[in-house]
Design a protein that fits this description.
6-stranded parallel sheet, 7-stranded mixed sheet, about 575 residues, globular
Length: about 575
């Protein structure tokens, strides 16, 4: 096959897994890694692929497949690496049978994340080698090379990407799928059962492996030197390599494809050949600190930021003290994120705001309930944290303190890690109220299915997990399922439950208005002559609604999803629903 295609970085990673002979892929959706699995499913005749309930489970699925002797892939965003770190640290000791590759997608600039962590630092602590591609073609090829390294050195491999690589396009040359023979299963207690006596011995194996890889990395083809003008030398990797080539086309460059362990001898040789050495890497000074610890003089974070994405212009200004491009004449206005028209979360938050109730929040579309005009959510930490946070507040300050608080969590996030937190509430006798905002999808990352939707990543219809039955199975008596657009019932239920001295769960249900299966009841229209210009319908902040010059409300019929929230808030009959 000699076909070429333009592919997203994530699409190229999926293609690399297919060409490498991968047979099992597991993931939990998280921007910027989501599209990897959405593209892998195109190869479902050859690769079993699944949405796991969280990244820890996904990692363990991939480990199990590797132990069974096949090549496996696990994909996640950087904060998912935290969730998966427990099995990750241990599988570094165990090693692999079939190759095992973990894709960790970092998010410099925090386009869709609650922090800006650097997965290379996790990999260093876990003693897991890291490859970092620079474009779509390398993304595909590095995945394939990662499986070779994984099996050669008996180790899991992390392939680190970033938002820019994941969502940028490049030309990719396609190759045929490699048919990799399954490794025969051999029982090996000393290697696979990590009780202390075995783990102590395996730690020595890991140290030896990393030392061998450090030596071998000097001759690996993914680490290459590009000598040009030796007045300036740059060590870089990943997407920043492309910025370096644009900003400093005449500089000498050591492009690292393997960023852990670093090829020490190769770096020392390169450093000796250039007059001034720069280390260009986004986020943490992972490479820089190691190079400086070897006594090599170099310039890094003294002049480069530790925050956000880099650019060619930023490098040109920092190193050459000149702008690479003329400043833009105009700049697009900022566009703050907002809940979509017809979003069921808006209805829930409008009721909570009316009742002056605070919400401990979680990760999902509904995090936007923190900003105006809704302004309900007070806290957001990580997946599943809303329930545990509220529990901690109660234990710190007592039952009365949380009478005007609830925890809000999405259906997918609840199954991710919220279940454990709710279990803790039951066990440790909380009296708080938890609201599961069930919109029948994993909304924020683009509408992926999960265990409660009744459909798998591979398109199979399965029996869905029923959230109310799951919650009742924990022994919680006060469980209510409410249509979020039945505002009167929702308000009554919330009032009653927060007043109780018992743990309660409210499942606020209505499908996401952007689901393909969603059929609007109709459109809402304004009758101008009836409008009193009070603005009550505008308070929830639906983007389909604006004010005309005379103060009457206008509904954009191309945006309206007919949820009826505005209609229910109008007391003068100025809004009607058209079927």
């Amino acid at each position: 096959m000699n076909e070429k295609r333009i592919m997203l970085g994530n699409e190229a990673i999926a293609r690399g897994a297919y060409e490498a002979g991968v047979k099992v892929s597991a993931a939990y959706p998280g921007t910027p890694s989501t599209e990897i699995s959405e593209n892998i499913v195109k190869y479902k005749d050859d690769i079993y692929c699944e949405w796991s309930p969280n990244e820890k489970v996904a990692m363990e699925v991939a480990i199990g497949a590797s132990m069974a002797g096949v090549r496996s892939l696990v994909s996640m965003k950087h904060v998912g690496v935290n969730v998966a770190s427990d099995p990750l640290y241990t599988v570094a000791y165990i090693g692999v049978s079939g190759g095992l590759v973990m894709v960790a997608a970092d998010d410099p600039g925090m386009y869709s994340s609650q922090n800006e962590q650097d997965s290379r630092m996790v990999a260093r602590a876990a003693m897991v080698p890291v490859l970092e591609p620079s474009d779509s073609m390398e993304a595909k090829e590095f995945i394939k090379y990662a499986y070779e390294l994984s099996e050669k050195y008996d180790t899991p491999i992390m392939v680190r990407t970033t938002t820019r690589l994941a969502h940028s396009q490049g030309i990719v040359e396609l190759n045929d799928r490699q048919e990799v023979e399954d490794k025969p299963y051999e029982r090996d207690i000393a290697k696979r059962v990590m009780m202390p006596g075995n783990a102590i011995k395996r730690h020595l194996v890991v140290e030896d492996r990393m030392n061998r890889m450090k030596e071998d990395a000097c001759s690996m083809p993914i680490n290459r030197v590009e000598y040009n003008d030796k007045k300036i030398g740059v060590i870089t990797s990943g997407i920043p390599y492309l910025y370096v080539k644009e900003a400093l086309p005449n500089a000498s460059v050591l492009k690292l494809g393997m960023v852990h362990p670093l090829p020490k001898k190769l770096i020392e040789e390169f450093a000796s050949q250039v007059e001034t050495l720069y280390i260009v890497e986004e986020l943490e000074p992972v490479i820089e600190e190691q190079v400086k610890s070897w006594g090599i003089k170099c310039i890094g974070k003294e002049i480069f930021t530790i925050q956000g994405e880099y650019s060619a212009n930023m490098l040109s200004k920092a190193i050459l003290h000149e702008d690479l491009y003329l400043p833009e004449a105009t700049q697009a206005p900022a566009r703050p994120p907002i809940l979509c028209p017809g979003c069921p979360h808006r209805a829930t938050f409008s009721v909570l705001k009316k009742l002056k109730i605070h919400a401990a929040g979680d990760i999902g579309c509904y995090t936007l309930g923190a900003v105006n005009p809704l302004g309900v959510i007070d806290t957001t930490v990580c997946m599943g944290s809303s329930i545990s946070t509220l529990h901690g507040m109660e234990k710190a300050k007592g039952k009365d303190y949380i009478k005007n608080w609830v925890a809000v969590i999405g259906d997918s996030t609840f199954l991710h890690t919220g279940v454990n937190s709710l279990m803790n509430m039951v066990y440790n006798q909380s009296t708080a109220t938890v609201m599961i905002l069930d919109n029948s999808t994993t909304g924020m990352t683009g509408h992926q299915d999960h265990a409660a939707t009744g459909k798998t990543l591979m398109g199979e219809t399965v029996k869905p997990i029923l959230l109310d039955e799951l919650v009742k199975g924990m022994g919680i008596k006060n469980v209510h399922v409410v249509d979020v657009f039945d505002l009167d019932k929702l308000e009554k239920t919330i009032k009653e439950e927060v007043a109780k001295d018992e743990l309660s769960v409210i499942i606020a249900q209505s499908p996401c208005a952007l689901l393909k299966s969603f059929v609007p009841k109709g459109k809402c229209i304004v009758i101008p002559q009836k409008c009193r210009k009070c603005g009550m319908c505008l308070i929830p902040g639906c983007p389909a609604m604006t004010k005309a010059e005379d103060g009457t409300v206008v509904i954009n019929d191309t945006m309206c999803n007919g949820c009826g929230l505005c209609l229910s808030r109008c007391k003068f009959g100025a809004i009607e629903e058209v079927k």
